[in-house]
Amino acid sequence: MPLLHRLVRADHPAIPFSLDGEPCEGRAGDTVLTAILTQAERLRLSEFSASPRAGFCQMGACQDCWVVLENGERLRACSTALTAGMRILTRRARAA
What we know:
Strand order of the largest sheet: 2-1-7-5-6
Radius of gyration: 12 Å
Largest sheet: 5 strands, mixed
């Protein structure tokens, strides 16, 4: 069950992406964090305790929302705009 439920921008253009190999859809204007949490119940698991994480500060200061693209590029989910075709991996993501 998704952690977030979309209340606004439902009529914005759809943006396809994949999350851990599964096809998903966000909306124009979504951050990667928003797109993920409208699809999943967590952003990633903590590399220290394996507890679920969903981002903390929501503004790019805390280092809690790092995810990895399939090509190995790391990005902060809370401050990166979703773009079509992103192939996001959360199972292997590590904090900085």
